[in-house]
Protein backbone atom coordinates (compact mmCIF):
# COMPACT_ATOMS: atom_id res chain seq x y z
CA UNK A 1 0.00 0.00 0.00
CA UNK A 2 1.23 3.47 -0.86
CA UNK A 3 0.45 6.01 1.85
CA UNK A 4 -0.73 9.48 1.06
CA UNK A 5 1.36 12.38 2.30
CA UNK A 6 0.85 12.44 6.05
CA UNK A 7 0.95 16.19 6.18
CA UNK A 8 -1.07 17.37 3.19
CA UNK A 9 -3.95 18.77 5.25
CA UNK A 10 -1.80 20.49 7.85
CA UNK A 11 0.92 22.11 5.77
CA UNK A 12 0.77 25.43 7.58
CA UNK A 13 -0.05 23.95 10.96
CA UNK A 14 3.01 21.78 11.15
CA UNK A 15 5.47 23.31 8.71
CA UNK A 16 8.50 24.66 10.53
CA UNK A 17 9.20 24.26 14.22
CA UNK A 18 6.06 22.22 14.36
CA UNK A 19 6.21 18.70 12.99
CA UNK A 20 7.42 19.79 9.59
CA UNK A 21 6.01 18.75 6.27
CA UNK A 22 9.53 19.09 4.94
CA UNK A 23 13.04 18.07 5.88
CA UNK A 24 15.35 20.88 6.73
CA UNK A 25 18.45 20.44 4.64
CA UNK A 26 20.13 18.56 1.89
CA UNK A 27 21.90 15.49 3.17
CA UNK A 28 21.12 12.73 5.63
CA UNK A 29 18.60 12.99 8.44
CA UNK A 30 19.67 12.42 12.02
CA UNK A 31 18.13 8.96 11.90
CA UNK A 32 20.26 8.10 8.87
CA UNK A 33 23.35 9.81 10.24
CA UNK A 34 23.44 9.04 13.99
CA UNK A 35 24.91 11.63 16.33
CA UNK A 36 28.46 11.28 17.58
CA UNK A 37 29.04 9.49 20.89
CA UNK A 38 29.22 12.08 23.65
CA UNK A 39 32.74 11.02 24.60
CA UNK A 40 33.99 11.97 21.13
CA UNK A 41 32.71 15.54 21.28
CA UNK A 42 35.34 17.48 23.20
CA UNK A 43 35.92 20.54 21.01
CA UNK A 44 33.79 23.67 21.20
CA UNK A 45 31.02 22.92 18.71
CA UNK A 46 28.52 25.69 19.47
CA UNK A 47 27.10 28.34 17.15
CA UNK A 48 28.27 31.08 19.53
CA UNK A 49 31.72 32.03 20.92
CA UNK A 50 32.94 30.41 24.12
CA UNK A 51 33.03 32.65 27.18
CA UNK A 52 36.09 32.87 29.42
CA UNK A 53 33.91 33.77 32.38
CA UNK A 54 32.30 30.36 32.83
CA UNK A 55 33.24 26.72 33.08
CA UNK A 56 31.59 24.31 30.67
CA UNK A 57 31.25 20.54 30.73
CA UNK A 58 29.13 17.86 29.11
CA UNK A 59 26.78 15.96 31.44
CA UNK A 60 24.25 13.15 31.19
CA UNK A 61 21.17 12.29 33.25
CA UNK A 62 18.08 10.14 32.88
CA UNK A 63 14.45 11.13 32.77
CA UNK A 64 11.60 9.24 34.44
CA UNK A 65 11.20 7.05 31.36
CA UNK A 66 14.81 5.88 31.50
CA UNK A 67 15.97 7.92 28.51
CA UNK A 68 19.48 9.35 28.86
CA UNK A 69 19.57 13.08 28.21
CA UNK A 70 22.72 15.01 27.33
CA UNK A 71 23.32 18.57 28.42
CA UNK A 72 25.90 21.32 28.60
CA UNK A 73 26.46 22.54 32.15
CA UNK A 74 27.70 26.11 32.60
CA UNK A 75 29.15 27.34 35.90
CA UNK A 76 30.34 30.85 36.81
CA UNK A 77 34.09 30.78 37.38
CA UNK A 78 33.66 33.16 40.29
CA UNK A 79 31.26 31.49 42.69
CA UNK A 80 30.78 30.86 46.37
CA UNK A 81 28.44 28.42 48.07
CA UNK A 82 25.30 27.01 46.52
CA UNK A 83 23.87 28.92 43.58
CA UNK A 84 20.46 29.26 41.94
CA UNK A 85 20.12 27.20 38.75
CA UNK A 86 18.19 27.33 35.48
CA UNK A 87 17.42 24.47 33.06
CA UNK A 88 17.02 25.59 29.44
CA UNK A 89 15.86 23.92 26.24
CA UNK A 90 14.50 24.75 22.81
CA UNK A 91 13.56 25.75 20.24
CA UNK A 92 11.49 22.81 19.00
CA UNK A 93 13.82 20.88 16.69
CA UNK A 94 16.96 22.75 17.79
CA UNK A 95 19.89 21.52 19.89
CA UNK A 96 21.77 22.80 22.91
CA UNK A 97 24.62 24.02 20.71
CA UNK A 98 22.31 26.70 19.32
CA UNK A 99 20.27 29.37 21.10
CA UNK A 100 19.55 27.44 24.32
CA UNK A 101 23.30 27.17 24.87
CA UNK A 102 23.73 30.87 24.22
CA UNK A 103 21.05 31.60 26.83
CA UNK A 104 22.72 29.21 29.27
CA UNK A 105 26.23 30.56 28.86
CA UNK A 106 25.15 34.19 29.16
CA UNK A 107 23.03 33.59 32.25
CA UNK A 108 25.93 31.67 33.80
CA UNK A 109 28.06 34.77 33.26
CA UNK A 110 25.44 36.56 35.37
CA UNK A 111 25.73 34.25 38.34
CA UNK A 112 23.51 31.21 37.70
CA UNK A 113 24.32 27.56 37.27
CA UNK A 114 22.72 26.72 33.93
CA UNK A 115 21.99 23.55 32.00
CA UNK A 116 21.15 23.56 28.29
CA UNK A 117 19.94 20.12 27.24
CA UNK A 118 18.72 18.17 24.21
CA UNK A 119 15.23 16.74 24.50
CA UNK A 120 14.52 13.03 24.23
CA UNK A 121 14.98 11.47 20.78
CA UNK A 122 16.95 14.46 19.46
CA UNK A 123 20.50 15.81 19.36
CA UNK A 124 22.90 13.87 21.55
CA UNK A 125 20.17 12.64 23.89
CA UNK A 126 18.91 9.07 23.80
CA UNK A 127 15.63 7.54 22.75
CA UNK A 128 14.68 5.36 19.78
CA UNK A 129 13.37 5.88 17.19
CA UNK A 130 15.06 9.15 16.41
CA UNK A 131 13.51 12.50 15.63
CA UNK A 132 10.11 12.11 17.23
CA UNK A 133 8.55 14.07 20.07
CA UNK A 134 5.99 13.56 22.81
CA UNK A 135 4.27 16.32 24.80
CA UNK A 136 4.41 14.08 27.87
CA UNK A 137 8.04 13.00 27.55
CA UNK A 138 9.29 16.45 26.58
CA UNK A 139 7.50 17.97 29.56
CA UNK A 140 9.13 15.30 31.72
CA UNK A 141 12.54 16.21 30.26
CA UNK A 142 12.38 19.55 32.07
CA UNK A 143 11.61 17.85 35.38
CA UNK A 144 14.51 15.45 34.77
CA UNK A 145 16.78 18.45 34.32
CA UNK A 146 15.51 19.75 37.67
CA UNK A 147 16.33 16.32 39.18
CA UNK A 148 19.89 16.64 37.89
CA UNK A 149 20.45 20.21 39.00
CA UNK A 150 18.95 19.64 42.44
CA UNK A 151 21.36 16.80 43.19
CA UNK A 152 24.49 18.85 42.48
CA UNK A 153 26.43 20.01 45.54
CA UNK A 154 26.88 23.53 44.11
CA UNK A 155 23.14 24.09 43.47
CA UNK A 156 20.53 25.29 45.95
CA UNK A 157 17.65 22.94 45.12
CA UNK A 158 15.14 25.44 46.49
CA UNK A 159 16.24 27.94 43.84
CA UNK A 160 15.74 26.17 40.51
CA UNK A 161 14.01 27.75 37.53
CA UNK A 162 13.47 26.74 33.90
CA UNK A 163 13.47 28.61 30.60
CA UNK A 164 11.87 27.28 27.42
CA UNK A 165 12.37 28.70 23.95
CA UNK A 166 9.82 28.45 21.13
CA UNK A 167 8.01 25.08 21.34
CA UNK A 168 9.91 24.24 24.50
CA UNK A 169 8.36 27.34 26.05
CA UNK A 170 5.04 25.50 26.03
CA UNK A 171 6.64 22.40 27.53
CA UNK A 172 8.30 24.56 30.21
CA UNK A 173 4.98 26.06 31.27
CA UNK A 174 3.44 22.58 31.23
CA UNK A 175 6.23 21.27 33.48
CA UNK A 176 5.82 24.12 35.94
CA UNK A 177 2.10 23.35 36.31
CA UNK A 178 2.84 19.95 37.85
CA UNK A 179 6.41 20.25 39.18
CA UNK A 180 6.23 22.38 42.32
CA UNK A 181 10.02 22.24 42.68
CA UNK A 182 10.26 24.74 39.81
CA UNK A 183 10.36 28.13 41.51
CA UNK A 184 10.28 30.33 38.40
CA UNK A 185 9.51 29.70 34.72
CA UNK A 186 10.38 31.91 31.77
CA UNK A 187 9.54 31.49 28.11
CA UNK A 188 10.92 33.13 25.01
CA UNK A 189 9.06 33.41 21.68
CA UNK A 190 6.76 30.64 22.93
CA UNK A 191 4.83 28.14 20.80
CA UNK A 192 2.11 25.76 21.98
CA UNK A 193 3.07 22.81 19.79
CA UNK A 194 -0.12 20.90 20.48
CA UNK A 195 -2.26 23.85 19.40
CA UNK A 196 -0.34 24.69 16.23
CA UNK A 197 -0.14 21.05 15.14
CA UNK A 198 -3.83 20.38 15.69
CA UNK A 199 -5.27 23.69 14.55
CA UNK A 200 -2.66 25.46 12.43
CA UNK A 201 -1.44 29.02 12.66
CA UNK A 202 -4.20 31.26 13.98
CA UNK A 203 -6.38 28.16 14.43
CA UNK A 204 -7.00 28.01 10.68
CA UNK A 205 -7.47 24.22 10.37
CA UNK A 206 -11.09 23.14 10.66
CA UNK A 207 -12.49 19.85 12.00
CA UNK A 208 -12.80 18.23 8.57
CA UNK A 209 -9.22 19.04 7.60
CA UNK A 210 -8.03 17.78 10.96
CA UNK A 211 -9.87 14.47 10.46
CA UNK A 212 -8.42 14.04 6.96
CA UNK A 213 -4.95 14.75 8.30
CA UNK A 214 -5.35 12.08 10.97
CA UNK A 215 -6.50 9.59 8.32
CA UNK A 216 -3.41 10.32 6.23
CA UNK A 217 -1.12 10.11 9.25
CA UNK A 218 -2.50 6.69 10.06
CA UNK A 219 -2.11 5.54 6.46
CA UNK A 220 1.52 6.49 6.92
CA UNK A 221 1.60 4.28 10.00
CA UNK A 222 0.52 1.32 7.84
CA UNK A 223 3.30 2.13 5.38
CA UNK A 224 5.88 2.34 8.16
CA UNK A 225 4.63 -0.90 9.74
CA UNK A 226 4.82 -2.73 6.41
CA UNK A 227 8.31 -1.44 5.63
CA UNK A 228 9.58 -1.94 9.16
CA UNK A 229 11.17 1.50 9.04
CA UNK A 230 10.32 4.94 10.35
CA UNK A 231 9.83 7.28 7.39
CA UNK A 232 10.90 10.89 7.04
CA UNK A 233 9.74 13.59 4.60
CA UNK A 234 11.76 15.03 1.74
CA UNK A 235 12.79 18.54 0.63
CA UNK A 236 13.59 21.31 3.08
CA UNK A 237 14.38 24.78 4.30
CA UNK A 238 17.16 24.95 1.73
CA UNK A 239 14.39 25.21 -0.87
CA UNK A 240 12.55 28.13 0.75
CA UNK A 241 12.40 30.95 -1.80
CA UNK A 242 12.39 34.72 -1.46
CA UNK A 243 8.72 34.67 -2.42
CA UNK A 244 7.76 32.31 0.43
CA UNK A 245 6.19 33.42 3.71
CA UNK A 246 8.35 35.80 5.73
CA UNK A 247 8.43 33.58 8.82
CA UNK A 248 9.86 30.71 6.73
CA UNK A 249 12.58 32.97 5.39
CA UNK A 250 13.35 34.05 8.95
CA UNK A 251 13.75 30.41 10.02
CA UNK A 252 15.98 29.71 7.04
CA UNK A 253 18.11 32.73 7.84
CA UNK A 254 18.84 31.27 11.28
CA UNK A 255 18.99 27.51 10.79
CA UNK A 256 20.46 27.28 7.29
CA UNK A 257 23.20 29.89 7.58
CA UNK A 258 26.38 30.23 9.61
CA UNK A 259 24.35 32.28 12.07
CA UNK A 260 22.67 29.21 13.57
CA UNK A 261 23.40 26.06 11.54
CA UNK A 262 24.37 22.93 13.47
CA UNK A 263 24.75 19.44 12.08
CA UNK A 264 22.73 17.78 14.87
CA UNK A 265 19.82 20.20 14.67
CA UNK A 266 16.66 18.92 12.98
CA UNK A 267 15.87 22.45 11.91
CA UNK A 268 19.27 22.72 10.22
CA UNK A 269 19.90 19.24 8.93
CA UNK A 270 17.20 16.70 9.71
CA UNK A 271 13.50 15.94 9.81
CA UNK A 272 10.80 14.95 12.25
CA UNK A 273 9.29 11.59 11.39
CA UNK A 274 6.29 11.53 9.06
CA UNK A 275 3.97 10.49 11.90
CA UNK A 276 5.38 12.84 14.53
CA UNK A 277 2.23 14.96 14.53
CA UNK A 278 -0.01 12.24 15.96
CA UNK A 279 0.89 12.71 19.63
CA UNK A 280 0.83 16.49 19.31
CA UNK A 281 -2.63 16.41 17.69
CA UNK A 282 -4.05 14.15 20.39
CA UNK A 283 -2.75 15.98 23.45
CA UNK A 284 -3.26 19.49 24.78
CA UNK A 285 -0.65 21.03 26.98
CA UNK A 286 -1.55 23.97 29.22
CA UNK A 287 -5.01 22.54 29.94
CA UNK A 288 -4.49 23.32 33.62
CA UNK A 289 -2.64 26.61 33.17
CA UNK A 290 -5.03 28.22 35.63
CA UNK A 291 -3.47 26.03 38.35
CA UNK A 292 0.02 27.41 37.73
CA UNK A 293 1.18 29.32 40.82
CA UNK A 294 4.86 29.68 39.91
CA UNK A 295 6.18 33.14 38.92
CA UNK A 296 6.10 33.47 35.12
CA UNK A 297 7.88 35.69 32.61
CA UNK A 298 6.90 35.41 28.96
CA UNK A 299 9.04 37.26 26.40
CA UNK A 300 7.96 37.64 22.79
CA UNK A 301 8.87 39.71 19.76
CA UNK A 302 6.64 42.63 18.88
CA UNK A 303 6.39 41.62 15.20
CA UNK A 304 6.72 37.84 15.65
CA UNK A 305 4.20 35.75 13.69
CA UNK A 306 3.86 33.63 16.85
CA UNK A 307 3.15 36.42 19.31
CA UNK A 308 -0.45 35.34 19.87
CA UNK A 309 0.71 32.07 21.48
CA UNK A 310 2.22 33.98 24.39
CA UNK A 311 -0.63 36.47 24.58
CA UNK A 312 -3.28 33.75 24.71
CA UNK A 313 -1.40 31.53 27.16
CA UNK A 314 -0.67 34.50 29.41
CA UNK A 315 -4.39 35.15 29.85
CA UNK A 316 -4.99 31.60 31.14
CA UNK A 317 -2.06 31.36 33.56
CA UNK A 318 -3.22 31.40 37.17
CA UNK A 319 -0.07 32.82 38.74
CA UNK A 320 -0.48 36.21 40.39
CA UNK A 321 3.19 36.92 39.65
CA UNK A 322 3.29 36.95 35.86
CA UNK A 323 4.52 39.30 33.15
CA UNK A 324 4.29 39.41 29.36
CA UNK A 325 7.35 41.26 28.07
CA UNK A 326 7.25 42.41 24.44
CA UNK A 327 10.60 43.02 22.74
CA UNK A 328 10.22 46.05 20.49
CA UNK A 329 10.84 45.50 16.79
CA UNK A 330 11.71 41.82 17.21
CA UNK A 331 10.49 38.94 15.07
CA UNK A 332 10.34 35.31 16.18
CA UNK A 333 13.94 34.34 15.44
CA UNK A 334 15.42 37.66 16.62
CA UNK A 335 14.96 36.28 20.13
CA UNK A 336 17.19 33.33 19.26
CA UNK A 337 20.35 35.43 19.11
CA UNK A 338 19.90 39.08 18.09
CA UNK A 339 17.49 40.60 20.62
CA UNK A 340 17.50 38.28 23.62
CA UNK A 341 16.25 40.23 26.69
CA UNK A 342 18.99 38.96 28.99
CA UNK A 343 18.63 41.85 31.43
CA UNK A 344 14.95 40.99 31.84
CA UNK A 345 15.65 37.28 32.34
CA UNK A 346 18.38 38.05 34.88
CA UNK A 347 16.11 40.42 36.80
CA UNK A 348 13.26 37.87 36.81
CA UNK A 349 15.29 34.91 37.98
CA UNK A 350 17.22 36.87 40.61
CA UNK A 351 13.95 38.21 42.00
CA UNK A 352 12.28 34.79 42.17
CA UNK A 353 15.14 32.39 42.88
CA UNK A 354 16.02 33.75 46.29
Structure, described:
The chain is an alpha/beta fold. It has a single domain, classed as Rossmann fold, CATH 3.40.50.1820. Helices cover 31% and strands 16% of the residues. It has eleven helices and eight strands. The chain has an eight-stranded mixed β-sheet with strand order 1-2-4-3-5-6-7-8, sandwiched between helices. Helix 2 crosses helix 3 (167-178). The longest helix has 21 residues, at 207-227. The radius of gyration is 19 Å and the shape is globular. The termini are far apart. Mean pLDDT is 89; it is low at 1-36.
Q: Could you give the topology of this structure?
A:
Layout: E1 54-62, E2 68-76, E3 83-89, H1 99-109, E4 113-117, H2 135-150, E5 155-165, H3 167-178, E6 184-188, H4 193-199, H5 207-227, H6 246-255, H7 266-269, H8 277-281, E7 296-301, H9 307-316, E8 322-327, H10 334-337, H11 342-352
Parallel strand pairs: 3-4, 3-5, 5-6, 6-7, 7-8
Antiparallel strand pairs: 1-2, 2-4
By DSSP (H or I, 4+ residues per run), the number of helices equals 11
Quaternary state reads: single chain
Average of pLDDT: 89
Strand content: 15-25%
- Spell out the helices and strands N to C: EEEHEHEHEHHHHHEHEHH
Q: Compute the number of structural domains.
A: 1
**Structural class, please?**
alpha/beta
How much helix is in the residues? 25-40%
For the record, the CATH architecture stands as 3-Layer(aba) Sandwich
CATH level 4 superfamily: Alpha/Beta hydrolase fold, catalytic domain
Radius of gyration: 19 Å
Overall spatial form: globular
Q: What is the strand tally?
A: 8
Separation of the first and last Cα atoms: 59 Å
The strands making up the biggest β-sheet line up spatially as: 1-2-4-3-5-6-7-8
What name does CATH use for the topology? Rossmann fold
